[in-house]
Specification:
Layout lengths: L4 E7 L5 H15 L3 H21 L6 E8 L2 E8 L19 H8 L2 E6 L8 E8 L26
Antiparallel strand pairs: 1-2, 2-3, 3-5, 4-5
Length: 156
């Protein structure tokens, strides 16, 4: 197994938490050479942190952990609430409720881990972004090279 890069930071559960999480995740991924994951990671961490702030107990900090491996980046947000996120039905004119739909659509995987009973109450909501798979086109599948004129020859 390849060595993983790991970071964790705590944030107060307030209105500024999502913006701080976006900036920290962006800086870490840039430092680790994972810029290709940064845009989606910023969006999804913002959604998950916003949910955590909404449902966390006011005195509990949020815990954000980022783990980068060769084939994926995993981000987990822990909070003090046992309330699990759900994919709820939303209407066109609803002003909220789409965050976890974005996570489900853009992450390669996501889930919720309940904290153990001996720990403080709460959960970790996590998502993974799989590294892009390089496309390899075998030489036999490449179009044949043309020799000479670039104009197709017309047969009569």
């Amino acid at each position: 197994m390849a060595e993983a890069l790991t970071a964790r930071f705590d944030l107060p559960a307030n209105a500024r938490a999502a913006g701080r999480a976006r900036r920290l995740v962006n800086e870490l991924l840039a430092t680790w050479g994972r810029e290709e994951d940064a845009e989606i990671a910023r969006l999804l961490v913002s959604e998950v942190v916003t949910n955590a702030v909404r449902y966390a107990r006011c005195n509990d900090p949020l815990h954000v952990q980022i783990v980068a491996q060769n084939d994926r980046v995993r981000i987990a947000v822990g909070d003090g609430s046992a309330m699990r996120p759900i994919l709820r039905t939303v209407c066109d004119d609803d002003e909220s409720g789409r965050g976890m739909h974005l996570v489900a659509a853009l992450a390669s995987e996501w889930g919720v881990i309940d904290k153990p009973a001996d720990d403080s109450p709460g959960k970790h909501v996590w998502f993974e972004l799989a590294a892009p798979v390089p496309v390899h086109i075998p030489l036999s599948a490449a179009p044949p090279a043309t020799i000479g004129s670039c104009q197709p020859e017309l047969l009569h």
